Amino acid sequence: SGNAIYYTKKPIIPNKYGSRFFDIYEYNLEKKKEKRLTKFQRAYNPVFISSDSSLAFLSTHDGSQNIYYLNLKTEKITQLTDFDDHSILRGLSYDSENHRLLYNRTMHHYRDIYYYSLTDSTTDVIIANELWDERDVHYSNGALIYSDDRSGVYNLRINDEYYVTNVTGGAFMPDVNDNGDVVYSLYENGQYKIVLLSEPHIIENDNVGYSPDYFMKNTGHSDPIVDRDNTKSRTYTDDFTTMFVLPRLMLDYETAKPGFYFYSSEVLERLNVFGGATVNTIQDVDLFFIFEFKRFYPTLFAEVFYITRNIQQSNFYSSYELDDNLKFRLTQFNAGIRFPLFGISQMELISSWQVYRAFVKETIPQENLMAGVAYDYYRGWVNGARWQLNNIKKLADNNINPAKGFTANISAMHEQNDFITGLNLSDAGTLVADFADNTTWRINLDGSYHISIPYTNRWTMSLGTQIGWLSNDDVDPFFNFFGGGMIGMKGYPFYSIEGTRQMINDITFRIPLFTQKHIQLGWFIMQNSVLGFVYQSGNAWKGNFEVSNLISSAGIQWRINGFSFYNFPTAIELEMHRGLDETVNEETFTYGDDDRYYFKLLFGF
Q1: CA distance 341 to 495
Q2: Residue 333 in this model has a pLDDT that exceeds 80
Q3: Which residues contact 474 (CB under 8 A, 6 or more apart)?
Q4: Spatial distance between the Cα atoms of 44 and 58, rounded to a whole number of angstroms
Q5: What confidence score (pLDDT) does residue 21 get?
Q6: Reported pTM
Q7: In whole angstroms, what is the distance from residue 605 CA to residue 599 CA?
Q8: Which of 154, 162, 563, 577 is 20 to 30 A away from residue 598, measured at CA?
Q9: What single-letter DSSP state applies at residue 41?
Q10: In angstroms, what CA-CA distances link 39 with 11, 33, 58, 579, 585?
């Protein structure tokens, strides 16, 4: 009836494995509604069969392509052909005069023209030649019109007798109306155009393309490989790469901290191990180990972190000099499962156990006396879930300058926190720590939305937000949200903004300085650079929210990315920010008079 359009496209929401396949859709022009007719069919090239109001289409399964039939009334799908030789099918069309389907089939190198009879279910070749290509066939008014390149240029030919076009780029996908006019796709000057050819006339073979016997250049090709590979298959067994060890040197709080990373992965990444260790001259130790097992649908993971910090200081008590050695040890174990949801998001269920312990050793050198004590000052058990969504459009520079899409992250954690309130003596006379219960729910929400500004050369604007909430307003400040520094309001120090509630909003305007370049600086290849302007507004508080308590920060951002040593992604970010308010949580400071600088060197932004 002419009220519907049939086409193929990928669905917006992928399947549970994150894959999106082409499917057939119907768009009703009267109701202006779209209907999905197939699901995960890998369907393309639909054609309408007017005699019985059905569709034929091409689909790929198990490496082979075949023709399928879709009954629009029952929505039942039937496979018509049974090719299992991995031949490639393209250019499906319907010949209503002979009630057959026409298509291109590539067996080895060139496309040939075949038919499939809807009357007796037979298929056979119509036009084939081993020295040139024939494609995009259409049947109308008793004649076949198609495109071939025997002359060195694709032009439209009728019944293997004569040409009706003589273009220099290429003519493809012809269709003919009842008046004999031809519409086709013209490739010219690096782009395709739709062209209408009225009253086509015969063009002599000698005038088309480079020459009528140009195809003879193809006679020297090697014979196609048609023998099957008879190698016997075997069950795959895990195969690990050699352990990769990378030395590292970190300069931290005026000390040099040498160490190393180690990494190994199963070839199919079904199991990964990653860890590292560093130590400096005052015996500050950083150890971590991350294990991921991906053999099942959910990823199983476990993480271990062990950190120590030592502080040596001297002071006086009466006439005695005291040497104090303070050591802090942080131990954390995480375990959980992670699984994808619809390809663009993932869910993580996690459990974490933490213990922070302090060691105090005091020495009086003059008297050669020594005393010490050790105690836990924090014990925590955290259980919860995290959900992450990333729907940013994949572009060549989407990491450094996201231009379209959004992200969202939500976490809900129940924290059983025991935090020290003091030291006391037990009945046995030993020193024990007194703990207070700081159990709370911790909710975090953050997201970003990115747009490309029209009529500009990839200028972009990004909106971001961070929201935090603790269910227990009476927790120790140790557990508060801290909203300054690199992860928060960048114009203010990390500890200057704190509370049991937090909200930070930002807007970033970015202008590309250059994109997709290849500027080599030693071992670093610079590809993209972006200049950004950032404005932030937010605060952290306790109790009720008041708009008047919002503070602001502004800054500039310079990003560079590329590759180091030809292989490792490298992202460099320099930022300068300044706080615009002197009052934070009703206390007056002078943070707004200082510029704060940030530097990042990572694999990505």
Answers
A1: 36
A2: yes
A3: none
A4: 5
A5: 92
A6: 0.73
A7: 12
A8: 563
A9: -
A10: 9, 18, 14, 53, 55
Q: Higher-confidence residue: 595 or 301?
A: 301
Task: Give the confidence band of 604 by pLDDT, cuts at 50, 70, 90.
Answer: confident
Q: Is the dihedral of CA 586, 589, 594, 596 positive or negative?
A: negative
Give pLDDT tens digits for 15-26.
877 788 999 999
CB 472 within 8 A of CB 438: yes
Written as one letter, the residue type at 487 is I
Nearest CA-CA partner of 309 in 280, 343, 349, 333: 280
Decide: 139 and 98 in contact? Cβ < 8 Å.
Answer: yes
Q: Is the pLDDT of residue 370 over 80?
A: no
pLDDT band with cut points at 50, 70 and 90 for residue 312: confident
Spell out the residues 6+ positions from residue 178 whose beta carbon is closer than 8 angstroms to its own: none
Give residue 215's region: left, alpha or beta (phi > 0; psi -120 to 50).
Answer: alpha
Q: Which of these, 408, 488, 413, 404, lies nearest to 450 by C-alpha position?
A: 404
451 is written with which tokens?
């747009």
d(CA 68, CA 41) in angstroms, rounded, equals 10
* 3-class DSSP assignment, residue 477: helix
Question: Which residue in this structure is represented by tokens 């298509």?
Answer: 103
In 393-430, where do the E strands start and end?
Answer: 405-425
- Look up residue 191 and give its two tokens: 């782009």
Q: Locate tokens 């306790």: which residue?
A: 542
- Cross-strand pairs, 135: 147
Domain extents for the chain? 1-92, 129-224, 240-392, 397-410+433-605
- Average model confidence (pLDDT) across the chain: 90
